[in-house]
Amino acid sequence: MRTTIDSYKTRAGRLDLDGIDFDDFRDQPLALDALRSLRYMHDVEHHTVCYLRDLLLTPAHQDPAITSFLSCWVFEEMWHGEAIGQVLEAHGEEAGAPRIAALRHGHRRRQAATTFSTIASAAFAGRAFIALHMTWGAINEWTTQAGYSRLAETASHPTLRELLRRIMKQEGGHIDFYASEATRRLGDNVKAQKMTRFALSHWWRPVGSGVMPEREVGFLVNYLFQGNKGADAAARIDRRVDRLPGQGDLRLLTRAVARLSPS
Q1: What is the pLDDT along the chain (263 residues), one digit of tens a residue?
Q2: Were 65 and a residue from 5, 83, 91, 218 both cysteine, which residue would form a disulfide, CB within 3.0 to 4.6 Å?
Q3: The domain that contains 103 carries what CATH number?
Q4: Domain range for residue 158?
Q5: Alpha helix locations (H) across the chain?
């Protein structure tokens, strides 16, 4: 069943934190690797609005259904970052505006990965670009949801598990819209399929690449997607990509894990 913007908007909203006791993290702090993962997730969730800035320079801004979705999406992602920030603060760490300001200052000094505005100006236009955007978004959301799931399992902290469950539920709404639109817009549009496949195979990188330092991207990918369970999660995402029209056998996640694994 297709997820429409109207059905998505009925579910969108601020993350429910009722009953989440962040003081639990003071009594039972997370292991260092789990905390490092949360720093990454906090920073990337808060970078969503900058990512949206790039998207609005592309043909995506011409489609009112897409811009309505993006308005809700960026709102929900901001609250995900705020919730994760409360976990960091419970561990005595800086979060929210001070941390985000430092991140954005550092980001200006680094060479960013290829942005959607660059891709759009290269050859993509109109419907073909929006098909790419929806496909790219679906893959990123599948990856994000899988990352939260793996962290909940690995960290084995009851309060974190419940918080991430609620975040994943909202990420599921994002997935439903992105994947539904990607399937519909790729459909029997051979041009869109080929252009999307080309862009993914040449430019797709794990969520946070180009924003976070490369060492942090490598750490997160290896921490969450190494080992049998991590490899299974990556393979599941690759199988979902396979089912999108014209995108079979890209193996984006499996190849990313292999590329970022310690030599």
Answers
A1: 577 888 888 888 999 999 999 999 999 999 999 999 999 999 999 999 988 888 888 888 888 999 999 999 999 999 999 999 999 999 999 998 889 887 777 665 444 444 565 665 555 566 788 999 999 999 999 999 999 999 999 999 999 999 999 999 999 999 999 999 999 999 989 999 999 999 999 999 999 998 899 999 999 999 999 999 999 999 999 999 999 999 999 999 999 999 998 86
A2: 5
A3: 1.10.620.20
A4: 28-260
A5: 5-9, 24-27, 32-46, 48-55, 64-90, 97-109, 116-122, 126-155, 158-186, 190-203, 214-225, 227-242, 252-260
